[in-house]
């Protein structure tokens, strides 16, 4: 017998083989939540990501409303229903671009190679990043809506929830 024939005899049939990284749904969700927590911690420690989530919605809402509000709509209050949804979309798009950059940095640094050696679900690093982005989008949306409310924006609650969900899950 040659070495390859020994290998073929030693391997079990395909029906009895199971992948070594098989995780249950509960374990996959738990792994994804751990990866989301890792991404949120990275956001807290990276100043530019923290700026994207907290300061950018506030600064842009104030700046664009008071610079262009009187010129475009005549007064600030009539411009708020136009600018607040625009700021929400702008913030989500800017924040979502940082997700791709983070994932690429993790790949370049070899973090994903280390994740492959861990006993975690294969989808957990990507799902965790997406969950963390949802948290970041929610923080940015709430801050934008609070700023708009302080400035006089009074939409109905159903519109806020529908618009927020549409913006968060469309990016």
Automatic annotation (TrEMBL):
GO molecular function, one term: ABC-type transporter activity
Entry keyword annotation includes Oxidoreductase: no
Keyword Transmembrane helix: yes
Keywords: Membrane, Transmembrane, Transmembrane helix
Cellular component aspect of the GO annotation: membrane
InterPro entries: ABC2_TM, Nod_factor_ABC_transporter
Pfam family, one: ABC2_membrane
Recorded topology in the membrane: Multi-pass membrane protein
Main location: membrane
UniProt region (Disordered), positions on chain: 1-23
Domain ABC-2 type transporter transmembrane: 34-164
Compartment(s): Membrane
PANTHER family cross-referenced by the UniProt entry: NODULATION PROTEIN J
Name of the protein in its database record: ABC-2 type transporter
